[in-house]
């Protein structure tokens, strides 16, 4: 492989959306941010310069970071933030992956505007396992707030209530014709030629919403998810959770009449009990020339907002390609088993404060196994590497929930969770199985769970309470989908497996930023192996300090 160098200047930029101009954080003045392109096997060096008042940190979502945990980026997990005026060079090699990934800021809610595609092409002269597309187009879904997103999440911390929802969904940063927009440039347009195949690289960069997506009068063929090939399948409607990426082939019509145009649209799949942005972003798929008027085009019909059965059926269609060239290395046996609940909970309202949580004496929070994770004031990986862990974290993250109950039935009377900075220690190469169980502590809700540093295999998905006596017999250990983000079904469970072959500290969290902020997160500490090539190298000299 070769080395690809990028420079990311984090700087302020004025941007107009929904008829209002706002100053946002950008990379190099672009929104969405620039595209990173590399081939499998290449080394990527991104020099990030912080030219804004905020602390920043960048994450290369889905990149395995084999023995390069110092470049992973979640603030206070693998590194201290890059402070104003400081620079940090992220340096990693892309190993054993090809497909669509993305990058985003990984501190507070700054990823609302700091995100972009990270495209990994196959090695030179290695073809795709599908026909070569005429063109490749990244399509990023996002969320736009007229307000400052830092103020939005900070207000939620103060009141204990859910944060204000976004004002629009976006496609490649544009809200489209179904919103109040003041310029036709606020609509994403994909110009296509008849009878060709396009590879659409779909990325859900929205903060708090899973999305349905459809293009009127066109079906799509799914070929890849989270930078791992899947057995191709056709669908009219897609579901994509925040953090997930999906590559689809779009075959354009051979003989569309005249200057045909069609709308594409995305809107949320939502199962929680709070408020959400129930609006639709649309873009235009345009054959031919001219400026089609989107007002006359039919909006694609999408499932109802809480179509959980539709989502379950869609999720069940994903299978690893699992052929001789791209085998599925599913751990067939498991050395460590975990059962983690994922869901909301409450914290007491501080005495001198007025709260608007589930009750006025409580604040909303979120937890795994009833532990709401508190970020330390220094980075876990630095503290582990320098053996200064006292007062930073403890290694007693529970292997089963602290509070036992019927997870999807009647909620418990006590919804309080404990706060802590707890990790699970794994020996190098341990084979791990985690059952992630949604809880109905404060309403059942789907959670897109993301693991850093690994891809995992989704060996099982189910509704209701996981049954350790019956469900494992139905696990798919042959061709389960390989992902970095799985949607734990609303009122259901997901079982994942991975092998801990990457030493370091690896974050696992809900990719809804509101739940991430509320503590639905934990970390794995994977110890070094015995051989030199099984150890995490020392940190780069420019690693930020806290
Ligand atoms: Cu896409 Cu921890 O992040």
TrEMBL record:
Its EC number is 1.10.3.2. Its main location: secreted. One of its GO terms (cellular component) is apoplast. Binds 4 Cu cations per monomer. It is an enzyme of class 1 (oxidoreductase). Its cofactor is Cu cation. Residues 11-124, 136-288, 398-528 form the Plastocyanin-like domain. Keywords: Apoplast, Copper, Glycoprotein, Lignin degradation, Metal-binding, Oxidoreductase, Repeat, Secreted, Signal. This is Laccase. It holds the Pfam family Cu-oxidase_2. GO terms for molecular function: copper ion binding; hydroquinone:oxygen oxidoreductase activity. It is found in: Secreted, Extracellular space, Apoplast. InterPro entries: Cu-oxidase-like_N, Cu-oxidase_2nd, Cu-oxidase_C, Cu-oxidase_fam, Cu_oxidase_CS, Cu_oxidase_Cu_BS, Cupredoxin, CuRO_1_LCC. It comes from Rhododendron simsii (Sims's rhododendron).
